[in-house]
């Protein structure tokens, strides 16, 4: 009798669980190293902005699932099967933040795309397939690099900055004006969003205004920019004007969360203050 009662109880519990809707909405993030999860062992300071996005929302209702990966472009993220793994997890009502550009600019064949053609095609694919799963796509253009040089330093691979030291940094004098390094790669996501009636967050303008507002020196505090001996985890120092430290990632995440809530007002009720 006790066994039968237990089975009835277990069956009822399973039925109740099946009938109870999942109250969590997931915000997926796909993109490159500026958003990606990082190794935090040994006091390492580098962070992607999406690592800090969960701090911006009530975890009882919004779960951030960050799939951004170092060195990936809109092309390689698909070619490596990473998009398929995200796609199969999307449920109706989930959001997908799509942010590429930094590595699409690179000449390497496994990463390179062209704005106005292959870059736009890939972004449109992400939008279309997200919608087919019942998800809500949000396009973002790339965050800026901290580039106060009139002529941007030649940089074929932002990932090389991760292993460089302070002495490897650019030997150029900085000015007072932040200069763009993305060209049409910052324009294409907005164009695709307009054509496809998709949500868009102008991460490029937001981070440009942040860095320009801080100025040449104060903006270094956002990045992996340390003089030798200044940061224990980087004893040789570093001049990385692309990737964020803990402080920078947190600042950028909060700015982008605010912009996301303006673009998608329903998310505002879950925004942490």
TrEMBL record:
GO terms for molecular function: hydrolase activity, acting on ester bonds. It comes from the Bacteria. SUPFAM superfamilies: SGNH hydrolase (SSF52266). Keywords: Hydrolase, Signal. Residues 1-20 form the signal peptide. Residues 29-216 form the SGNH hydrolase-type esterase domain. Belongs to the 'GDSL' lipolytic enzyme family. This is SGNH hydrolase-type esterase domain-containing protein.
């Amino acid at each position: 009798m006790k066994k039968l009662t237990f089975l009835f109880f277990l069956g009822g519990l399973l039925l109740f669980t099946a009938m109870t809707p999942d109250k969590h909405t997931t915000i997926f993030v796909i993109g490159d190293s500026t958003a990606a999860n990082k190794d935090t062992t040994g006091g390492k300071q580098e962070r992607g902005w999406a690592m800090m996005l969960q701090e911006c929302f009530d975890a009882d209702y919004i779960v951030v699932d960050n799939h951004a990966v170092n060195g990936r472009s809109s092309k390689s993220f698909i070619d490596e099967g990473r998009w398929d793994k995200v796609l199969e997890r999307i449920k109706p009502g989930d959001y997908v933040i799509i942010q590429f550009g930094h590595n699409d600019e690179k000449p390497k064949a496994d990463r390179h795309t062209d704005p106005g053609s292959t870059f736009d095609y890939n972004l449109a694919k992400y939008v279309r397939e997200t919608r087919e799963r019942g998800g809500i796509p949000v396009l973002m253009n790339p965050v800026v690099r901290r580039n106060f040089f009139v002529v941007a330093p030649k940089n074929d691979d932002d990932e090389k900055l991760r292993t460089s030291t302070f002495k490897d940094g650019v030997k150029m004098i900085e000015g007072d004006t932040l200069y763009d390094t993305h060209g049409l790669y910052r324009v294409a996501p907005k164009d695709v969003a307009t054509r496809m009636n998709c949500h868009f967050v102008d991460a490029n303008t937001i981070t440009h205004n942040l860095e320009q507002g801080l100025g040449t020196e104060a903006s270094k505090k956002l990045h992996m920019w340390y003089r030798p001996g200044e940061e224990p985890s980087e004893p040789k120092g570093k001049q990385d004007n692309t990737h964020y430290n803990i402080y920078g990632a947190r600042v950028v995440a909060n700015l982008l969360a605010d912009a996301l809530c303006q673009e998608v007002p329903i998310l505002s009720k879950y925004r942490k203050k």
